[in-house]
Amino acid sequence: MPSKVKEADMTTLLVHLILRNNSGEILLALRGDTKNYPNMHSLPGGHVDPDDDSPRSAAIREAAEELGIHVRAEDITQVVSGNRLEDGREFIDHYFLCSSWEGEITNLEPNKCQSLRFTAPGEIPTSTIGFVQIGLRSFLEGYQNYKMEK
User: Fold this and answer.
1) What is the mean pLDDT of each run of 10 residues along the chain (150 residues)?
2) What distance in Å separates the CA atoms of residue 122 and residue 104, rounded to the nearest whole number?
3) Element spanning 141, H or E
4) Separation between Cα atoms, residue 19 and residue 26, nearest integer Å
5) Contact (CB, 8 A) for 102 and 67
6) What's the pTM?
7) Domains with residue ranges and CATH for the chain
8) CA-to-CA distance for 32 and 90, rounded, in angstroms?
9) CA 97 to centroid of chain Cα atoms
């Protein structure tokens, strides 16, 4: 009898949106008192769901769900991919750059996100989640991949 795959054995796919305004600033979210990474800065994004066609479609969905904006597939580009191990689990992070969207950015998840603000690339807070710092630094320095083990 085949054994069932445990959730801890599965790879988790995540998407992160690097939204840049006309001044080149990057949108950061200050997480709320959440289970994972409470009160830390991050990028908008989330898990790739089974119903998503691809990480790109997940990023577009997350933009609508979290921020109330419409992002067209042709307006977002994958710029960084990251592999990381945390507590024995594998995560693959997909970072998408977007400088064009429709609608006004609104915090639609106030139970998960305390605030949203645009920040200059050189002023990313030290309270930003570690792997997000690495993903942003990779993007800003022109690297397309990173690997972390913890």
Assistant:
1) 51 97 98 91 96 97 98 97 92 97 98 97 97 97 89
2) 25
3) helix 130-141
4) 6
5) no
6) 0.91
7) 10-149 (3.90.79.10)
8) 24
9) 10
